[in-house]
Known about the structure:
The chain is mostly helical. The protein has a domain at 11-48 and 82-134. It has four helices and three strands; from the N terminus they run αβββααα. The chain has helices spanning 10-42, 71-97, 101-108, 116-140, and strands at residues 47-53, 56-62, 69-70. The protein has a three-stranded antiparallel sheet. A hairpin with a 2-residue loop joins strand 1 (47-53) and strand 2. Helix 2 runs antiparallel to helix 3. The longest helix has 33 residues, at 10-42. The chain is rod-shaped.
Amino acid sequence: MALAPKMKDFPRIRGALKFYQVASIITGVMLLLLCVEMLLKYTPIGVELELGGPRGFLAFVPSGTTVAVNLSTGVLIAHGWFYVVYLFSDFRLWSLMRWPFTRFIVIALGGVIPFLSFFLEARVAREVKTYLASREAEAATPQPVEASN
């Protein structure tokens, strides 16, 4: 029998869910930007995004020729660091909800498989909110008392 979350942890679960939802959306957007950057750099197009270089404020330059701020590398680094934040939010929600470890792994994949974080965010949020509402309704219902002799 799996352990259920404690009623006293419900406010913390709601906070962890909100943090997970924000982290999931940001990580998903960063992953999509990273995919676009990889396509631009490693296909025959072969360009990178440069900020503040001699070609203007924001320009596509041939790969390996950036002389100013390389935004392509910036996207890569930002996604990597934010994925760590996403994993932390996943771990926090997973541990408070007392889910099996496989659930943690599936949610963690949302940060490395394009578009998956958006689908998981919606599904996980719906499941958690439904679970919390049903448990609170169950707790609010008066339990029958047995008479003893």
